[in-house]
Amino acid sequence: MSIAGNLKLHSDPHIALEMISILHQMHPMAECTLDFDSAWELLLGGIIGAQCTDERVNMILPLFRERFPTIEDCSTADIGEIESVIKSCGIYRNKAKAIKESATMIINEFDGRVPDNEENLLKLPGVGRKIANLVMSDYYGQPAIVVDTHCGRISRLLGLTGNENPVKIEKDLQLLLPREEWISWGHLMVAHGRSICQARCRKCGICRLKKICSYGSQIKLERKDKEDSNDQECY
Ligand code: SF4
């Protein structure tokens, strides 16, 4: 059973609003952690980023830009050349295939422009809801929630969803979060997941969400001694 399996689920949007407010205070600089200059580069970053850190993606993107300056360059490239540029990011053969096929589809079917709607983004090889939402939100500025592993895990701990499936998580969050916060929610989850609510080290003792977080408030009851001392132990 998942760690969030027995946690209380919040259904009150006011709780979610309070969480957002606290998260903004805790992570005022939270933003997209990929370095991109265009919708195409953000799309590339999403594809390359599967099972790979943003830091590595940010190292690869400039190399990619230098070797394949345009989407057309990428669509006509030898797939082995694409593989050689992205090799350090893991599962590179699948990613190279998706990149080349997506570039070709963008040239042939979308006039060389990365689609600005989810329906067409999802037609691109290697593009699922997470990447489509990434492009929609962080490039086109459209309200969309990027559900990555940080977002899914922390949203469950907070009690905003009981689901493991990213599509279901997205729907649960859409019901609780105001549309104007959909973009920032993904950024806040990444920032919080890297600094405080880490997968292997939840620092509930110093987390300002602990009183309203389903997981954190439960820990407080069970381990009051540590909470009272503001202990920073991971638990
Ligand atoms: S209280 Fe703990 S589980 Fe909840 S968000 Fe904070 S660190 Fe994560």
In short:
By secondary structure, the chain is an all-alpha fold. The protein is built from 13 helices and two strands, in the order αααααααααααββαα. A two-stranded antiparallel sheet has the order 1-2.
Structure write-up:
This protein is mainly alpha-helical. It has two domains: 13-29 and 146-228, Helix-hairpin-Helix base-excision DNA repair enzymes (C-terminal) (Endonuclease Iii, domain 2, Orthogonal Bundle), CATH 1.10.1670; 39-138, Hypothetical protein, domain 2 (Endonuclease III, domain 1). Helices cover 57% and strands 2% of the residues. It contains 13 helices and two strands; from the N terminus they run H-H-H-H-H-H-H-H-H-H-H-E-E-H-H. The protein has a two-stranded antiparallel sheet. Helix 2 packs across helix 3, helix 2 runs antiparallel to helix 8 and helix 5 (79-86) crosses helix 6. The protein is elongated, with a radius of gyration of 19 Å. Mean pLDDT is 92; it is low at 227-233. Iron/sulfur cluster is lined by residues 154, 157-158, 196-197, 202-204, 207, 209-210, 213, 215-216.
